[in-house]
Each structure stands twice: as structure tokens, then as C-alpha cells.
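Q: What structure does this chain adopt?
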Amino acid sequence: MVSVRPVPAPLIDFPHTFVDEALGFAVGLTYWLANCMSTVSLTIAAAMFTQYWPSSLGMSAATFILLLALFLMNACGVKLYGRMEWVFKWLKIALLVGLCVLMICIKAGGQWKYGLEKQQIYMAANPSHSGTWDSGQ
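A:
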């Protein structure tokens, strides 16, 4: 149907045109609610990742910052939004390439000079150690 009758937002327009106006409205409202719920759940999930960072930023502040950044990105013009999407695309590609290189280096035997070595030496010297990163008390 899209190739025969190309319209913007066909998932809302086709039920509106071919079935009933109320069905088109209901489908549009359902899509809007689904997008709202997914935005909220993804923002909360991203804010939960900040719990693992070594900062005192609370989850509510992280949620606010993420929602503000999302709003500001969508409030700017199409040209600037497209440029931001282009920059984020290349950041993701650089991250993936960097992670692949890091995994190859680690698999080849490359190590940091001061990594888990100290922890393994400490655990070997103290057999009663619980194996966690704390002092073992």
C-alpha cells in the first residue's frame, strides 16, 4: 500500500483513511504513548549506569541531565540535529574499533604495568582474604 499510496506516517493514515477516523486516532495515540514509555525507560536505564561511576551524582540528577540533553538535541534545527547524529555515529564507530583493538591487545598478552597484579600478590600473601577488593576485614 505504501508503494501505491505514499503518504507521511502511513501507519496512522491508513487506518484513518481505510477503516475509521477513530482508529487512526487510536493508533496515533498508541504510538505516542509507546514512544513516551520507551523514552522514560531508556532514560532511567541510562541513569542507572551512572550508579557505577565514581561520582556522587544521584540518579535523579543524572535523569534530569539526560532528559535535558535529549530535549535540547530535539529542540535544535534539523541541520544541527543531523550534524550531531553524524558526530555520534563516528563516535560509536571509533568506540567499536577501539574496543576491538583493545581486545586484540589483551588477547595477545599486553598488560598494564599495575593492574590486577597487586591484588593477586595481596591475595597470595593473605590466604584468608575473601577475594573482594576491600581490605578483607
